[in-house]
Structures are given as C-alpha cells and as structure tokens.
Amino acid sequence: MKLEQNEKPLLFSETMIPDIFFAEHLSQIPGDYLKIYLYLIFLSKYGKDIKLNDLSKKLNIPLKTINDGFKYLEENELILKKSAGYIIVDLQEATLHHLYTPNLTMSKEKVEQTAKNKSRAKAIEHINNMYFQGIMGPSWYNDIDLWFRKYGFDEQVMIALFDYCYNRSAMHRNYVQTVAEAWSSHKVKTWNDLDKYYEQQESMNKLKKSIAKKLGKYNGLTQYEEAYIENWVQNFGYDMNIIEIALKRTTFKQNPTFEYINNIITDWHDRNLKTPDEITAFLEQRKKQEKSAKDLKSTVNKINYAQRKYQDLDFLYANKPQGGINV
User: Fold this and answer.
1) Is 107 helix (H, G, I), strand (E, B) or coil?
2) Phi and psi (nearest 5°) for 83?
3) How far apart are CA 76 and CA 208, in angstroms?
4) Is 17 left (phi over 0), alpha (psi -120 to 50) or beta?
5) Of 2.60.450, 3.40.50, 1.20.1270, 1.10.10, which CATH number belongs to 113-189?
6) Do 113-189 and 206-274 show the same overall fold?
7) How many Cβ atoms from other residues are within 10 Å of residue 270's Cβ?
8) Which fold has domain 10-96?
9) Global pTM?
10) For 256, left (φ over 0), alpha (ψ -120 to 50), or beta?
11) DSSP state of 255
C-alpha cells in the first residue's frame, strides 16, 4: 500500500488535521478506527509501502479490526482507494464540494418560504450554540435542513431532537437519524405530537416494568421481549387487563417463555377477541369443550376396556376342551 511522500525529516515534520474532522467525524468514529486514521495521516507524509499485517502489529490492533477500519474510513469518505493503495481525502475540499450547489434562480417557492426559513435559521443557530458550542460542522446544516423537509418537524421538535440525543451523550449523526425516524413513525410533527408521544412512551415503560415484575424478570426485559409487548399494545390494541389474563396462564407451565405468551395473545388477536370479557368467555367455552372431550375419551376407554374383557373371556371359552377327558 503506497502512501504519499513528504520531504521533511521526522524531527521537523508536523501532522496536520483539519478542524472539519473534529466538527464532522470525531464524535462518530470508533476508537480503533480513529487510531488507524491518525496513523495513516502520519504515514502519508512518507513514501514507504505499508502492509495491513504490519499496521496491525504496529498499532496492536487485530487484523480483522484493521480491515473493518479501512472499510469504515472508505464508506465515510475519509480515505480513497486507488489502484496502488490509498490516499487521504482532503476533508476541506470534499466538504466544500459537498456543500456547494449553484443557485442560479430564486424560485417562487423559495420566496414564499423566506419567513419559515428565518424561523428555522434561528432554531439551527440555537442548536449550534447549545449543543455544538458554536462550531457545528457544515454537513450538520444540510442534515437538519433535510430532516425538516423529510419529517415535517417544527422548530421546537427539531430542538427537542438534539436535546434528547445530547442528554444521552449520543450526538452522532446515525443516532440522531434513528431517533428522528422513530418520532416520525409515530406521526410526530409538532410539539403537541411530541408531548403525546412522550406520554405514550411513559405508559409503555410502566407497562413493561409491570410485566417484568409479574414474570419475576428483575434484571429487566430484553429488546426482543419489549418488541413483543409493543406489538401487543400498538398493533393488537391490548392493554394490561388482557395481557394479565395471558400472564396468569403461565402459572401452570414451568419456565414459560415470551414466545409462549405471545402465541397465546396472538391466537386471541387472530380470533378477533378484543375485550377481557370476550377472552374470558372464550376460555370458559374451550374449558367446557376440553372437559367434554375428556369425558368422551374416558367413556370410550371404558367401553373399549369392557369389550377387550369380553373378548378375553370368549377366548378362554373358545379354548376350553370339548367332550370327555383325554387320557
């Protein structure tokens, strides 16, 4: 792998990193990948070949992590693969190309959006000052503008989005995007929508804790178990009154799984049972049917037993010696 040459000797050489890297990439890049990237920048000043195995040993990083790191750096346009190796992408130039789009005409729609744009500009400036200490990377401006248009968030919701991520120490683009998708999927657009969503989430969390307690899962639920509960509530429309009926049915089963409980609740949903009374009536009817089937089976078994006994006696009579005694 060939890297670029710098004529300065090591003692007098400096490794320069553009500020755009700190604003755009530092918060998102994993630790080992950061070590790889910084070392590549350092090596790019010297005209020597370097192999991935040597890089692995030099940085004390597993070879698989080295390969994954190169893939990450390529995907995030920090390095560019060439036929003879890699080059370090000029982040300042790349950012400028990414941001620059010729605006030759001012459309009527843009003129009509001026007032809204001013309001959004204030919201973005607030986000910059509050969560990026006034040095928000240029690409964040494009992302925020995109999220305004894609999700239809108002300014308060957009600020709340960054506040939510900031308070969870997750101010990286993928996480913010994921939260925005989740809010949008629940039809959040305005502050009132977000307030209702928070209430629903709080209610859902209480429900999950209640179910975990009833099942003795004091270490909490797994992501998959929580997904079951969300499906029961959001898609089936069931509340705790119905779910608890299913939970009680696990008392007769050793080590019941969430899949077992889900099968019970899904069966009720498939039968279009919507209320606790309907479910209770269904269970009572099935209990009677099972009892009738059990009684019928018991009666049939008795008849079969009697028939076998009669046949056994016939067999004895059939083999009884006829006539006199043989000598």
Assistant:
1) coil
2) -60, -35
3) 38
4) beta
5) 1.10.10
6) yes
7) 9
8) Arc Repressor Mutant, subunit A (1.10.10)
9) 0.55
10) beta
11) S
State both tokens at 167. 């308070």
pLDDT at 154 over 50: yes
Per-residue pLDDT averaged across 64-85, rounded? 88
Chain position carrying tokens 């995907």 = 75
Average pLDDT across the chain, whole number: 82
- Dihedral sign (CA 126, 131, 136, 142): negative
HSE-CB at 44 with a 13 A cutoff on CA atoms is 18
pLDDT tens-place string over residues 224-239: 999 999 999 989 999 9
* CB atoms inside a 10 Å sphere around CB 154: 20
Read out DSSP for 49-99?
A: B--HHHHHHHHT--HHHHHHHHHHHHHTTSEEEETTEEEE--HHHHHHHHH
How far is 184 from 196, CA to CA, in rounded Å? 13
Handedness of CA 94, 99, 103, 109 (dihedral sign): positive
Q: Which two structure tokens, joined as six digits, stand for 10?
A: 């090591």
Give the model's pLDDT for residue 69: 93
What distance separates the 2 farthest-apart alpha carbons in the chain? 130
Q: What is the pLDDT of residues 6-62, one digit of tens each?
A: 456 666 677 888 888 888 788 889 999 999 999 888 888 776 677 889 899 989 999
**Burial degree of 261 (CB within 10 A; 0-12, 13-18, 19+):** buried
Size of the chain, expressed as the number of residues it contains: 327
User: What are the structure tokens assigned to 326, written together?
Assistant: 């043989």
The CATH architecture one would assign to domain 206-274 is: Orthogonal Bundle (1.10)
What is the domain partition of the chain in residue ranges?
Answer: 10-96, 113-189, 206-274
Residue 162 identity: F
